Amino acid sequence: MTAPKITRNAFTLNRDDAKRFAQAALSACTRDDLTPVLQGGLVTVDGLAVRITATDRYRVHTAAFTLEAKAKAHEFSIPRDALQWLDKNVAFHGRYNTELHRVVIATTSEGKLTISVRLFDGDDSPAVSWNGDIPKGKFPPVLTLIEKARTADAAPTASVRFDYIAKAGTLAKHMEFPPALKFTASENPNKPGPLYMAFTDNPGETPYAEAIIQPMLPTFPFRPAAKGN
Q1: Residues facing residue 66 across a β-bridge
Q2: DSSP classification of residue 154
Q3: Residue 31 and residue 42: Cα distance in Å, rounded?
Q4: For the chain, is the Cβ count within 10 Å smaller at the N or the C terminus?
């Protein structure tokens, strides 16, 4: 009996994009062990574009990147430890000629994942690599929540965790260009909609990254701290 043929898909990111690729997901993925597929991110490749999406059920981050070379359309989950390794090792080759550094992310039909940080583009480049398994499970369709928030009506402000807003900064290409913010209306009149954040190079352009953050719901009346605390 002939063994099934193993297929391989891969795409390449430059150093700056690879760093933001990792951090965009790490800043939003869950840290619990209940749903392994949510401990990292969902990677969607289509031609000259790749998108990474992550969620911890309270927020969603998604960021798109333009590839230098066309890649075959495919989709897979990437684990948190792979993203942490990439975030730590993307600068492995130092500060010299960083514009030449490349990161190749490859998957196989056997469920294997390899990340290679290369000194330059090419199979003969010096490289450090991470190898592991693709998490099993179905990633939830959270991009529909992003799309819904993008077109939702604006609503009065609501309380949102400030650390979540700060961590969404990992989506930004340039920290000096703030995202557009919109508190959205909800179909439930008793519950506010999420905060929507759109990151663009210029106002009015298609966002290269987006985030939504669920508002905090008051569960008890605020009481000021006692004197001396």
Answers
A1: 49
A2: B
A3: 15
A4: N
Contact 40, 54 (CB under 8 A): yes
Mean pLDDT, 10 residues at a time, the chain of 229 residues: 76 97 97 88 98 97 97 97 97 89 96 96 92 95 97 91 95 90 89 95 93 79 46
Q: What does the alpha-carbon distance between residue 168 and residue 151 come to, in Å, rounded to a whole number?
A: 20
Q: Where are the domains of the chain?
A: 8-133, 143-213
Measured distance CA(214)–CA(57) in Å, rounded: 9
Structure pTM?
A: 0.90
* Torsion of Cα atoms, 117 then 31 then 62 then 123, to 10°: 10
Which H or E run includes 67? strand 59-78
- pLDDT, residue 228, reads 47
Say which CATH superfamily domain 8-133 falls into: DNA Polymerase III, subunit A, domain 2 (3.10.150.10)
